[in-house]
Amino acid sequence: MLNLSVILEDSARRTPEKIAYIFGETRLTYKQINCLANMVANGLTGLGVQKGDKVALTCPNAPYFPAIYHGIIRAGAVVVPLSILLKQDEVAYHLTNSDAKVYFCFEGSPELPMGAEGVAGFAKAPACEKMFIVTKHETVGNPFPGFSKFSEFVSGQSPVFQIVQTDENDTAVIIYTSGTTGRPKGAELTHSNLFLNANISRDLLEITANDVLLMSLPLFHIFGQTVMMNAGLYMGATGVFIPRFDPASALEVMDQENVTIFAGVPTMYWALLNVDRPERFNLAKISATLKTCASGGSSLQLAVLEGFEKKFNTVILEGYGMSEGSPIVTFSRKDRVRKPGSVGLAAWGVDVMIADENDRPLPAEERGQLLYRGHCVMKGYYKNPAATAETLKDGWLHSGDVAYRDEDGYFFIVDRTKDLIIRGGFNVYPREVEEIMAQHPAVSLVAVVGIKNDRQGEEIKACVVLKNGASAASEELIEWTKERIAAYKYPRIVEFHESLPMTASGKILKTSLRGS
């Protein structure tokens, strides 16, 4: 038997007065977070929520998230974390598709109206029985009359709760994929999936109870949820929240709170590297305190990796994972040689194979689809046996990512299969072009996409953000790239952007760029 929420309960038992979370001026101990989680569990039980029922949660990075998340889990229910950027129809789809019975939603703001969108979405999901509004200040009025506030939900609930016994293979969380190739699918992750991945994260990042983790990755996303939140809770570390990532806020918090561990997606590292007026920040102190950095979510361009490591005098450990993999599949390790550009070695207990189109293993250096199996693999997609059968075959999860391994067993991601550009019958991997263009002295950030072309089938377009104060003409960048890459690979179109569209988790939205 295993319930993931024992990681919080155990840390609260061992170090009840230890600071678990910092949020602005607020300091919350492990005892306080654990008691709030118990109150949530008691409240859900009082509503009739039973083992296996689904409970949805829309919440930015704040102490409410881990408390509600673990309250749901310790009640034996299943957490359905939702992106804070969802619109009402998307909220309704997720509530309906997941069979959510209860929905907790943060009130939001005029700029990010998650409460308004949540209320409207809830109205379109009649099977979801109850909705509670989480507000910034629980003592202030209710922004959505007719809906109970979270404070009212937990009011009078006991801070003591006996965790519901669950099997390690019971579903603990349903994580919805980004839906870039159709409607989002809910990956069912078990208590065992998530516990073992938190354990792996702890070892790879060398997290101890003395560490301070910057909680800037969105917790509704599996990367932040497992690698930072659950791994940190497991070890009794301290987490510092910033509701939404921006480089200035992140650097201020790193300095003020003596952050030792930072995990982010590549665009976060790019933003930190290119922050305006870096002299405002005590980079020497930040660099001296920061002991571990980790990157995942998508490929980190070498120019960004090298620039960040030089500026902050630290090493970035790159990893590879998926929502369906809980998420860690491969990761760089401090005790092994690090190869820039590689996503490291297979994680403990995970088998990784590069396969051809017939799922046969390929030798070193040959490109194929990355397949993996082991304790990290999801149970399947919720209520979607067809998609499950397409992704899980003979025990192997088919990632859809093109990769290769070298003779030493290190893995390198080439690109997403869906991002592959076929120009005039030739395969072009965007990341290869991006790596070349990122070396141009005027280029700060670049994303390469394929767009429809009557003659070539697809044409190559590069969307470029220039460095502050730099200038370059599109013809110059085209010619510069042409000199450094095969003739069929260089972009024929270059567009300049002030910024690139991104998901809430910091991934570049290439679907938007294809249509721009």
Overall form: globular
Widest sheet, order of strands? 2-1-11-10-12-13-14-15-16
Backbone CA Rg: 23 Å
- Structural class computed from helices and strand pairing: alpha/beta
Number of helical regions = 16
Biggest sheet details: 9 strands, mixed
Quick one: how many beta strands? 27
Average pLDDT level = 94
Report the end-to-end length measured between terminal Cα atoms: 51 Å
Please give a structural write-up.
With 516 residues, the protein is of the alpha/beta class. 31% of the residues lie in helices and 26% in strands. The protein is built from 16 helices and 27 strands. Helix 10 crosses helix 12. The N and C termini lie far apart (51 Å).
Short synopsis of the structure:
The protein is 31% helix and 26% strand.
Q: Which features characterize this protein?
A:
27 strands, 9-stranded mixed sheet, 5-stranded parallel sheet, 516 residues, single chain, globular
Give the topology, please:
Layout: H1 6-14, E1 19-23, E2 26-29, H2 30-46, E3 54-58, H3 64-74, E4 78-82, H4 88-98, E5 100-106, H5 114-123, E6 130-134, E7 148-149, H6 150-154, E8 171-176, E9 186-190, H7 191-205, E10 212-215, H8 222-235, E11 238-241, H9 247-257, E12 261-264, H10 266-273, H11 283-289, E13 292-295, H12 302-312, E14 316-321, E15 328-331, E16 345-346, E17 350-355, E18 368-374, E19 380-381, H13 385-391, E20 392-393, E21 396-405, E22 411-416, E23 421-423, E24 426-428, H14 430-437, E25 443-453, E26 457-466, H15 474-482, E27 493-496, H16 510-515
Parallel strand pairs: 1-11, 3-4, 3-5, 5-6, 6-7, 10-11, 10-12, 12-13, 13-14, 26-27
Antiparallel strand pairs: 1-2, 8-9, 9-19, 14-15, 15-16, 17-18, 18-21, 20-21, 21-22, 23-24, 25-26
Helix pairs in contact: 1-2, 1-8, 2-3, 4-5, 7-8, 10-12
